[in-house]
């Protein structure tokens, strides 16, 4: 048995092997030590105390789910080694083998997955011209592939995929490790990704070693899965990545499940690009603080009622469209659902009752579905016909197309409804799965077992009458079978034909020849019934598996209907409007609102703002104003409204005209990345450099406080140069929030630059935030007032005002030291501390004399001639020194 374990471990050395022994999964050697540490199991041993002691740990097989999930969350992989024979019918050692490997990216158990989040494994192949990227969600069968030209595009693509696991060739592994990308990295050698282009063009066969334990992949199936790539030229890296992901799937799942769809090739340019920092700064799927879903854009706008709809909404958010035509098809559908209230509400009610059809298909295809899964499938397809009837009168192009393609599966529905009982058991080995009438052979066995139970009741009544023992009972258990139990008080009344079977403390158990004969019949029928039900279920499951492609198509349609109806529900609940979307170059938003912030305000009313970005007079907007006034909110809401419009959603505004953008870039907030050895300023500069390299004239850029992580002059210089570059070379639509008021001078010399500010009102040395974006520049940042609002002590506030006044006036004392150094404590000057330099350097006696002379002049009493003479004298003194 240990040799079986060692063989399995040798084939899957990077996994924790769960080795089935009866009702337990056991682990041995280093696996046992690791599992005991990570899962809190008791570590014991075989041959304790001997030289060949074998560490071991285990748990009941039926409770494996939480243990698998715990290891997967730590990035580990688990190989499930099952008993392939019935121990009760096998002589000698039971045959065992690995039936599947579970990794972070290949989870199918619904208890280990977030129902509303896809679970991708990605494959990356780095070549001479760029990177091929393939992704697969094995729980739904979604298989996609693309090509990106450089490492920046690779990181952005993996970020929006959110892959839990990434396999990569050496070149790609080097890039991903250097950038510490998210997801568990599984480096592979070049051979893992190899494909022969000649064989591919003539029918494709992924290298001859693409098999596992003698299991060849079906060549026709592989060809079908990769067929869409044949239409793409120069996709060697993408083909290699796709081959790698199929090889990984074959090795871990012992083949390719039938629900895996043909690869969908897409070009990155088909979708609006959002890099990792932009996604984080805009808090699209999780918050910056704490990484929580609550408080994100996704959580705010998600009104879907099905799990598949929730996943599709996330996908649309990660991959917004840039082509106005399909976008307007979506918007037409949302508009129709907004108008047709009854249709929308009835549709959402019907969709709320469907199960996750995509993931049901995944479990059916992999052979993991039980009777309850098939019952869920039956209930789901039973809802399709009413949904199709409900949408019979729709008019928009997209809704008509979806409704026309929606199959009602009448034959399959009737088949399942007549097969599975209303409340089937979880186990497939205990019987009780099928309705009467599904199988004549099964009905016969059911009749025999049910009749046997009736016979037992009649036999008990007969024996009570014959023996006059009213407490006599006929019972059954798995160990002793059927027996007659008689209490000790009645033992003197036991008939002579009763044969003793078991003695208890308070009773004796017996059997009779008649009881034994019937027991053999009943138990034989019960066993045959369970065996037959299991075979019938496997046959039915395989029958359903044959319709998986059509079922997956229906699942996609239902998910799309859910998202479109959810957009309409969102629009009606929160007063959103349909945006006008085209391929123009303007973004004009009237009274736009931040979709998340407006939902979180309790006492304060959200103040809407209007924005007009075009490619001529105002594509670079310099936004000034105090902290806390709302600069960040305004620029982010413009990005979010644009994003929502390109998803196909209505938007929070009075009106909106969106010329689609190809990329959105965001540099907002201050953060460091100590893991990569980057300071706050280095992160800021890296992200800024990334924007300047990739932004185009069709991009939307929002910047907040560029240059604040270094000295004032350095920061101002960088901010100025960045703004000039965006204006002169890129010409991207840019909103640049800053406290460097010097940047407002850009509007004097640049035709596309425009000054905007957030209005405030001063009242009794306090400020009132008006939250309104207005044309023109702010002349102050009101930082001290904001400090007061934050709770700084009044002594600090008062001193800060004094220092600010001194700095702004540039006042110096008689020694040339800035008055900013004055305070209640003794001053430090060049006289009382010769080693202390002044802020502006040491002044010579002549300069001090001129300054003292200036200070002694009474300007109001001087005549013009006296003033000129005094100025001439001071000039002479300075020239002589």
Automatic annotation (TrEMBL):
GO molecular function: ATP binding; ATP-dependent DNA damage sensor activity; damaged DNA binding; mismatched DNA binding
Family: Belongs to the DNA mismatch repair MutS family.
DNA mismatch repair proteins mutS family domain mapped to chain residues: 699-715
Keywords, alphabetical: ATP-binding, DNA damage, DNA repair, DNA-binding, Nucleotide-binding
GO annotation terms (biological process): mismatch repair
GO CC terms, sorted: cytosol
Its job: This protein is involved in the repair of mismatches in DNA. It is possible that it carries out the mismatch recognition step. This protein has a weak ATPase activity.
Name the record gives this protein: DNA mismatch repair protein MutS
SUPFAM superfamilies in the cross-refs: DNA repair protein MutS, domain I, DNA repair protein MutS, domain II, DNA repair protein MutS, domain III, P-loop containing nucleoside triphosphate hydrolases
Pfam families with a match to the protein in the record: MutS_I, MutS_II, MutS_III, MutS_IV, MutS_V
Listed InterPro entries: DNA_mismatch_repair_MutS (IPR005748), DNA_mismatch_repair_MutS-lik_N (IPR007695), DNA_mismatch_repair_MutS/MSH (IPR017261), DNA_mismatch_repair_MutS_C (IPR000432), DNA_mismatch_repair_MutS_clamp (IPR007861), DNA_mismatch_repair_MutS_core (IPR007696), DNA_mismatch_repair_MutS_N (IPR016151), DNA_mismatch_repair_MutS_sf (IPR036187)
Binding of ATP, residues: 625-632
Domain of life assignment: Bacteria
